[in-house]
Fold this sequence. Notes:
153 residues; 4 strands; 10% strand; 4 helices; Rossmann fold; alpha/beta; 4-stranded parallel sheet; 2 domains
Amino acid sequence: xxxxxxxxxxxxxxxxxxxxxxxxxxxxxxxxxxxxxxxxxxxxxxxxxxxxxxxxxxxxxxxxxxxxxxxxxxxxxxxxxxxxxxxxxxxxxxxxxxxxxxxxxxxxxxxxxxxxxxxxxxxxxxxxxxxxxxxxxxxxxxxxxxxxxxxxx
Length: 153
């Protein structure tokens, strides 16, 4: 999914790219729903009870985006009712996830401490971007990775 699917050329191996208006259809046939979206007014609490109910009971939900996108109480209710095969979360509404949170009790849930973006090369990538942007700034060029505050990312 993309907020502007008409501007995206699907990469090799990707059948198509759809917009948010097709979310329900996509969730209805997906084996895995991977959330890698930013937290914006459009995505806040997007995966609530209604949206989670669109997933099949054999589906897995993975969130490596932002915690505010998934309503954890609704997610626990879906797990309790057996409406999901499993869940993997790297981000939460409140971080760190409290030790007494019910998600810790499920054997079909993987919880990680907001580390999905870390790798052995991340520091080098950050440094390279910083160095590149300092050069661009001194040359009066457009910087990389500018945040558009109207989009929230």
